[in-house]
Amino acid sequence: MRDAYADTGSRRDHNRDRPAGMKLLVVEDDPLHAQFMLDSVSAALPEVTEMTHVDTGHQGVSEACQGQYPAVVLDLQIPGQNGVEVARNIWARQPATRILFWTNYADEAYLRGILRIVPAQSAYGYILKTASTSRLHLALRAVMIEGQIMVDPGVHRFQVRASATRDGLTDSEHNVLIDLAIGMTDKGIAQRRAMSVRSVQNRLLSIYQKLEVEEDDQGLVNKRARAVYRALVTRTINVETMIAAARALELWLEQRDQ
To answer: pTM above the 0.85 mark?
Structure first.
């Protein structure tokens, strides 16, 4: 569904009586959340004169790129593609696009995914839907108008932990954890990540320690499965990340067999 918000009589006209300015796209599948965001943009950003709403990831990529939107508000859990995949596709074509991620989830997995793909020339923000209206307005202006990077305090603690390698996983360890979670063997991980089996095993030992997977002398607990459980509980990974990783694995296996 695509809504450009011209005046219909029953819906508030978000584009009328504004000076010439910028365009903004909202990608959100929940109608109430979408309307709230449109109202918030209307109140916080008088510079925005044209707003469009779509409710699937595929529509978000298509609309953002065809319409050359400089600013996008993006839910992380939407039908078709998750928000990180949508952002990756938009930034691949329009690296200067400013994106505000607006979500219910304070997950390290989402933040890691964003940090891996954000272009150097783009501003971005990550704000929770539980944030106050004033904080949301601040985030909108900081990212869309001032070109700043703004991360919600509820998410920032994950960013701090991820950057502290003594307590958080390194990028290499995180990759190994994701591969483990989707069922790969040490040998398979080594081949996919271009490292030795010994290096994979050393990273697994570090992962077990950082995720507090305890030793089981009686052999009653599978450490690999326990590590995946701990990673899910601590939001180091999430289901969407695993689904995206499984798709990437299928492509890698196909290319490898060619």
So the answer is: no
